[in-house]
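Notes to self after the call with IL:
- keep both proteins in one doc
- input above output, always
- annotate only the second one for now

Protein 1:
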Amino acid sequence: MDAAAIPILKRLVPSLRKRRAEMTDPLTYRLIKRNGAMFLVDYSAWSDRQTLIHGLVERPQTEFLLRAFVDHGVEIFVDIGAHTGAYAIMVARHTQCHRIIAFEPDARNFAHLQANLLVNRLIGKVETHQVAISDKDGTAPFMSVEPPYNVWSRISQEPNSQGNALVRTARLDSLLSLDSASVGLKIDVEGHEFQVIDGMPNLLRANRCILQVECVPERLPAFAAKMKALGYDHIHSIAHDRYFIRA
C-alpha cells in the first residue's frame, strides 16, 4: 500500500516531500523565524541549514556575549566577519547598544547580511561595510567560498596566493576613533585574527572592550599573549571562541 494513502499520512507525506524538494533545491530561499528574529535562509548553505534546524548556529556564544554586554553596559558593538548578520541582529534586539557596526568583505555574504537586516527592519540601525578588517589599509586577495561552506570565506593566507577575488582592507583604527567608550567586538575571520588585532591597538587601549575572538587551540597561547600585552585577560572559552576583557 502507498503510505500516502493512509489517512493520517495524507498531509504529512506531501509536506515531507515538499520539504525534501526545498532542501535539495540549490536555488531555494525561505524566510524563517528563529530566536525572535527573521532570517532569509539559503538551503544550499551549511550554516543556513543549521539555523533552519537548530536556530542560531552559535547560540551558547551569542547568549554569553549578550549577557556580558548587558552586565558591562556595552554601548557600541563592532562585528568583524559579520557573515549574514546573526550577531548584529541579536545585539540590536536584546541590548542597549546605540551603535552597531558590521564588517563583511564577501560579496555574497554581504548581500545576505543586508537582506536579513531589511526583513528585521534594521536598515539604518546597523551600519554595514563591505571591508575586511586587517593590519593595513589597501586591498588583499580573498578566497570567496561558494555554498555550502561560504561561512569560511577568508583573506588568503598562503604566500603568493591570488585568491579568487580582491577585497578592500582597512585597519579598524583608521575607521573608528573612540575614547573612553564601552565597546564589544566579535571577531570571526578564519585565521586572520592576529592581523585584525594589529590594526586596532589604539581602540583597545583607549576604550573598555569585551571581545569574542575565534581562535583555534594551537594559535591560542600566542594570541592570548598578544592580548595580554594590550592589557586584556582571557576569561572564558566556548568551543574555539575566546573571550577577553580589559584587566
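Protein 2 (the one to annotate):
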Amino acid sequence: MRIGIDLGGTKIEVVALDAGGSERLRRRVPTPRGDYAATVDAIVRLVHDAESELGSQGTVGVGTPGAVSKQTGRIKNANSTWLIGQPLRADLERALGREIRISNDANCLALSEATDGAARGMRVVFAVILGTGVGGGIAIDGVVHDGPNAIAGEWGHTPLPSMRDDEVPGPSCYCGRTGCIETFLSGPAREREPSLERYLDRLARGLAVIADILDPDAFVLGGGVSNVDEIYTRVPDLMRTYVFSDTFDTPLLRAAHGDSSGVRGAAMLWPSGATALGTASATEVR
C-alpha cells in the first residue's frame, strides 16, 4: 500500500493506493496555518488513521509547497512560510518510524498525470499549479526531475515575461521580489484582476517561456484556477504569438485526476510494490 499526503496551504489530504493504483481511502483536514508542530501532528494522525482503518502499513510520500534543500535537509521556498527552515522529512521519519519521500507539490502533479492521467505515455511533462500559489513541476519518462538544487520547474518565482508599462515593477511577493509570475497568476491574483483577457494573456506569456526552454510534450494544469474553461480554448492560440517557433501544437491539458492528482503523485513517489522501510536517504527523484 502506498500512502500519499498533499500538504496544502488550506488543507492536508491523504490517499491510500493499492498495488494497481486504485484508491482505497481519501481524507482531508484543514491545515493548521502558521503552526508547524500542529502541521506535523496532523500529517502523522492522517497516516496512522488510514493505516488503522485499512489494517496495513504503507510507504509514505509527501507533496509540499517549496522543496527540501539538498544542502540542509530543511524546507525552502514554501509559500506556506511556517514550513521554511523546518526539518519536515526528519520530523515525519522520527514520528512514523520509516523513510519518507518528499517532493514539490507540482512535481507530484506532474508524476501523477504522466503515470495514469491526462499526459499518460508522454515523455516530458510540465505541470502547473494555479492555486493559492503558482508552482511548476517536471516529470521525465515517468520520474520526477527536481534538479541538483531542487528548484527545477519553479517558474512561479521568475519575473512575468514582457511586462507592460502598467505591470512594472509588479506586486511584491512573499519571496522578497517583485513581479513574480505567482503575484500575477495565483488564485488571489485572479480574484483581484477583473479582466479575464489580461489574466489569460499573462498565463500565455509565462507558459511560452517554458515552451521555449523545455519544449515539453504536454502542459498539465491543476489548482483551483485551472478550472477556468477559457484557459484551454484560448491560451494555446495566445501562446503561439509568444513562442519562438514557426509552429506550436503542444497540448494544454486539464489534470485528469482533478484536485486530488497531487496527492496521488505523492503516493507514487514510491514504486508499486515498495514496502515501508526504516529511515534512509533514498529518493525517487533525479
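Annotation: Residues 118 and 256 are 5 Å apart (CA to CA). The chain has two domains: 2-106+262-267, 108-260.
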